[in-house]
Design brief:
The structure is a homodimer. Chain A has about 180 residues and is mostly helical. Chain A has helices at about 5-25, 30, 40-65, 80-85, 90-110, 115-120, 130-155; strands at about 120-125, 130. The first copy, chain A, starts with a helix and ends in a 24-residue tail after the last helix. At the A-B interface, helix 1, strand 2 and helix 7 of A face helix 1, strand 2 and helix 7 of B.
Chain lengths: ~180, ~180
């Protein structure tokens, strides 16, 4: 499916509402659970998505659009949220994420990007040359990947409770070795 | 995490709202996409969840609670939705699922199940002996597994669009051989 800006923005717009519908007001046992030692709980995912709003997607798009001679992105800290959000509630993080996302999408719309701009280059610190189009497609996929992760990690909290149903519930055996 | 009825009902209550936030009004290219030939699109998942409301979870709980000598479940048709929903819109299915789920949870609450009832036995046609508690835990996990699937299948529609980002987006390489 080829990348298009308007439906991509439409999907990005949905993520805070999806996470709020799934997580707001749930028991901490559900949103603090993990699937392995260095992996994210649903709480961590919301913090990680906030980090993305503040330090990843739009800052990198700005670097590309500045058209400087070295459009090199800053490396991204996957664990910035851990210290940042140590004393925060899930509800306050959900509200902050919704606000940041709304502002960022308003900015993205205001740029009125055309096909030529979408092909502008950036330099990823470890992946090498990328385009603005690939950056924006990766933003959408990154959201959806973390939504899938939240649902999967929540499902695994009942791993021992379903008895003989395990082979019919493949989500319970996805990512046996956590990889995100 | 041990099964508890109230938080399980709370999660089951959320699923229609989560799916509506993610899917209502999106382009058909997003909700008709699959990750492999015999696997479910997001549209199929909503139909499959409706089948679950009509033929799986509550009907099976009723069989258990009837305490007959042979509490054997009917086999479940994973592809019932295909012919049933051939002419339906996604929006009408989302609304139908929300209504069926609400009614089923109202019924479930009305049973005021206690610990003894949760241990009552049923007979799964292929998995063998199960308890009502395991059935209800499996219902929750089944929902969350299909939410994860919807997000994953949507993410994969942009597989070719993210360029060099693939190794940083593990959702794109989950279920390379579809298994649900």
């Amino acid at each position: 499916m080829p990348f298009e800006l308007a439906p991509s923005i439409d999907l990005l717009r949905r993520t805070p509402a999806v996470l709020t519908a799934l997580l707001e007001g749930v028991d901490a046992a559900w949103f603090r659970g993990r699937e392995g030692p260095d992996s994210f709980s649903p709480f961590d995912v919301v913090g990680h998505l906030i980090d993305g709003e503040e330090t990843d997607w739009i800052p990198r798009a700005r670097i590309i659009l500045a058209r400087g001679p070295q459009p090199r992105f800053e490396p991204y800290d996957r664990f910035r949220h851990r210290s940042r959000n140590a004393d925060r509630t899930l509800e306050s993080l959900l509200a902050e994420f919704a606000r940041l996302r709304e502002d960022n999408l308003e900015l993205l719309r205001s740029w009125r990007l055309g096909p030529d701009q979408l092909e502008l280059p950036g330099q990823h610190p470890s992946l090498g040359p990328v385009t603005l189009r690939q950056l924006l497609a990766a933003w959408v996929v990154h959201d959806l990947g973390h939504l899938a992760q939240v649902a999967r990690v929540m499902a695994k909290q009942y791993r021992e409770e379903v008895g003989p149903w395990v082979p019919y519930l493949p989500v319970l055996t996805d990512h046996e070795v956590p990889r995100s």
